[in-house]
Amino acid sequence: MVIDINNESAVEIDESVLLRLTQHNLTAMHVSPDADLAIVLVDEGAMEQLHLQWMDEPGPTDVLSFPMDELRPGTEDQPTPPGLLGDIVLCPQVAESQAETAGHSTMDELILLTTHGLLHLLGYDHAEPEDEREMFGIQKELIASFAAAERRRPTA
Length: 156
Prior knowledge:
The protein has helices spanning about 15-30, 45-55, 90-100, 105-120, 130-150, and strands at about 1-5, 35-40, 65, 85-90. It starts with a strand and ends with a helix. Helix 1 packs parallel to helix 4 (about 105-120), helix 3 (about 90-100) crosses helix 4 and helix 4 (about 105-120) crosses helix 5. The protein has a four-stranded mixed beta sheet, with helices on both faces. It is α/β, with parallel strands linked by helices. The protein is globular. Helix 1 (about 15-30) links the parallel strand 1 (about 1-5) and strand 2.
């Protein structure tokens, strides 16, 4: 599994947490270990350009997902085939602002946004209420299981 993380933003982020999170989530969703994914962190100006270009909406947003091979979650018996999942683009400055409002850390917000973006890459959406319940339910489960895994992780 190749997970490429590129921080082009001015915000210092612990990329190892995002890497562990993504590995955890891909394993939980039974995605092939030969699937590739890129995560890019950008400043507000770059995110605003992408948001306008791809969503035709002004202003920076928190996360954008760009699926490539339209891979879907697998099962234990039948994992997702190898392929290119796509790109997740995060804006740490927007995440920081949202984290303040939500009363948690910027890293907690980035964990939520990365998980959310990954689910979009795997074909989940939240346009309809039923789809939103499903996607946000899975998102909550993934974040909780990652938090539990992090608590069990040996500290150096």
